[in-house]
Specification:
The protein is α+β, with helices and mostly antiparallel strands and 214 residues long. The chain has four helices and 15 strands. It starts with 5 loop residues before the first helix and ends with a helix.
Length: 214
């Protein structure tokens, strides 16, 4: 590690993320690093103070991870973000923030690649989204197509009031869950309206139950 600067290291780490995601690093008062993405740029500069109401501000104020949608009033553009604080010897020193474009702002459809072109699918018609064989599939009750976004990107871009991650390979629309069955090892099976059966994995089962209230 000799001779490697913190900024160079952060630049390399930033390359591991999608081009859709901006990365910001702050101490407890101001930003010290910012790498904008191709899709969303909050125009942050090193030395800019943390604004009240931002993801980074909330993470620093609470000392815990913060994740939510922020409207356009703070930076002029809406975004989804996740900020994780970091400590040294038990003392809060700052946080790292991932900034995602707000795909849902002003949009109510996801445009899916079909055999002959592209098909706009209303969010309400999406039954579930699946990651398989290095592709992302959008499933409705009578149609399946692909999309360029990963599940991680969709997890932050889709409406959070009815799209839930339930497995490393699935995000489901809770409005299309017909029934929920218990399975072995504290997991569940979801019977969907399109006839598919999906697994809620053990790592997501507690989170899933909490969000659905059962």
């Amino acid at each position: 590690m000799k001779g490697i600067s913190i900024i160079s290291l952060l630049d390399v780490i930033g390359e591991l993320f999608s081009d859709e995601i901006s990365i910001a690093v702050s101490n407890t008062k101001e930003y010290i690093y910012y790498r904008p993405s191709k899709r969303v740029d909050l125009k942050i500069k090193p030395g800019d103070p943390l604004k009240e109401g931002t993801i980074a501000y909330k993470a620093i104020a609470s000392g815990h991870k913060a994740s939510e949608f922020i409207n356009r009033e703070l930076f002029g553009v809406p975004y989804h973000g996740m900020a994780v604080p970091f400590h040294h010897d038990g003392i809060l020193e700052g946080c790292v923030t991932a900034i995602y474009p707000a795909l849902t702002d002003g949009k109510t459809v996801v445009t899916v690649r079909s055999q002959d072109g592209w098909t706009p699918i209303p969010f309400s018609k999406v039954v579930y989204i699946e990651a398989k064989d290095k592709k992302t599939y959008i499933h409705t009750e009578g149609f399946t197509g692909t999309h360029k976004y990963s599940l991680q990107e969709f997890e932050y871009l889709l409406p959070k009031d009815y799209f839930i991650r339930c497995h490393r390979s699935y995000i489901v629309n809770v409005n299309h869950i017909k029934e929920i069955y218990p399975d072995s090892h504290s997991t569940f099976i979801l019977a969907m309206n399109n006839g598919e059966r999906l697994t809620v994995s053990q790592s997501y089962s507690s989170y899933f139950r909490k969000l659905l209230g059962f």
